[in-house]
Amino acid sequence: MAEHQRIHPVHDPEAPQKPTVPLVTRGYSQSDRGDPAEIYPPFRRTIPMSDLKPPKTRSCWCRCLCWTLSLLTLLLVIIGIIAAIIYFVFQPKIPKYSVDGLRITEFNLSNDMSLSATFNVNITARNPNKKIGIYYESGSRISVWYQITRLCEGSLPKFYQGHRNTTVLDVALTGQTQNATNLLQSLQEQQQTGSIPLRLRARVPVRIKLGSLKLMKWKFLVRCNLVVDSLAANDVIKISSSKCKFRFRL
């Protein structure tokens, strides 16, 4: 019985090989139905470049704010330097004021129940500065009050007060108060105690002279609390207390 021989193919590595052709075009894949399916690239979110940049309006606002703060700081520094120079060179001191005398020439109740008053007030103004003069300008106003009622008013004369100068002023004040029956009764009751509180207010426009330089106009504000023993006309009025406060402003 003859033996059947099996013949197996032998692979020859030196034999030329046929190029293989892909069944599906590059960029496509085989679907379940056998049709090629298109392959899409992965999704990538794009961010607009405008979102990454800060708003221009905010940048301009910050720049303007920085410039403004810088200018204000520079201005404050310059003002501070000028004030320091003035202080060390001129050594300014506050003027002093006092009420030294009071004379009443009229203080009576008329038939129409109005109170007429005429006061003569002696005011002493002292300038203790060595290099600073004071120009007292026109437009000043001085008044005398009892509680909330203004009894009389007047003004200071226009004059110049030099260095280390003391000036005594005699100022006439006049006034008239309507429906003053209750006011006069209150004053009479207060006069029986020998202590009548009065207030003197003064607002005076002035100009300061530093050496030969005349500065802009300022306002001197003076408040004096007085206590007198009587308000009788043509009588000697004694001032038992006189306290004055001074401040100034533009």
Automatic annotation (TrEMBL):
It is found in: Membrane. It is a single-pass membrane protein. The chain crosses the membrane at residues 64-90. Coiled coil: none annotated. Residues 1-15 have a biased composition (Basic and acidic residues). Residues 123-213 form the Late embryogenesis abundant protein LEA-2 subgroup domain. GO terms for biological process: defense response to other organism. Keywords: Membrane, Transmembrane, Transmembrane helix. GO terms for cellular component: plasma membrane. Pfam families: LEA_2 (PF03168). Residues 1-22 are annotated as: Disordered. This is NDR1/HIN1-Like protein.
